[in-house]
Amino acid sequence: MRHVIVCLLLMLSVPVLANEADRLKQADFPAQSHQLVLKNQAVLTYLWADVYAAALFAQADLSAKQALDRQKDLRLELYYFRDIDRNDVIKAATATLERQQTPAALARLKPELEQLHKSFRDIRSGDRYALDFQPQRGLNLEINGTVVFSSRNDELAKAYLGIWLAPKGLSDSLRNTLLN
Q: Helix axis angle, 2-10 relative to 86-100, nearest 10°?
């Protein structure tokens, strides 16, 4: 229920464009990012309001799902269409992680999750957040092209990317589109 309330708060006063193609064009994702190629993209819409466009990048010779399953290089970019308070983002992420992860896993990840969440800021329309994973380097969180958090913990990378890409995440529709 808490997750629904947070999502409702995120949707207040969001202008809606004509269709998803318009929103994806507005987000203007590149065909390549850091030697990875664009696999799929989608718009997260909640209660008829577009929240963000998401794009998933992976190696050219792998599908997006293969890259995720094999923990290969993967990049998830989010282009926001509206302002969102950082605390609302953290609440939604936490609720999703609690749904997806065991209490033991959350306990192991807690110190790094707290550090990751401390790096968040209030989102402004037009901001780009990216989760960039490379097995030899780990996970980076970028805000508007600047790395604001790094971790070499593969379990953290898998769990946090799972907010968008694993079952019981933020949106099954978004997940399916990105991984197909």
A: 150
Q: What distance in Å separates the CA atoms of residue 105 and residue 137, rounded to the nearest whole number?
A: 21
* Beta carbons within 8 Å of 57's beta carbon, 6+ residues apart: 32, 33, 34, 36, 37, 38, 39, 74, 75, 76, 77
Q: Report helix, strand or coil for 133.
A: strand
- Identify the three-state secondary structure at position 70: coil
Q: How far is CA 78 from the centre of its chain?
A: 6
- Token pair for 153: 């913990």
CB atoms within 10 A of CB 88: 16
Q: pLDDT (tens digit, 9 = 90+) per residue, 67-113?
A: 999 999 999 999 999 999 999 999 999 999 999 999 999 999 999 99
Residue length of the chain? 180
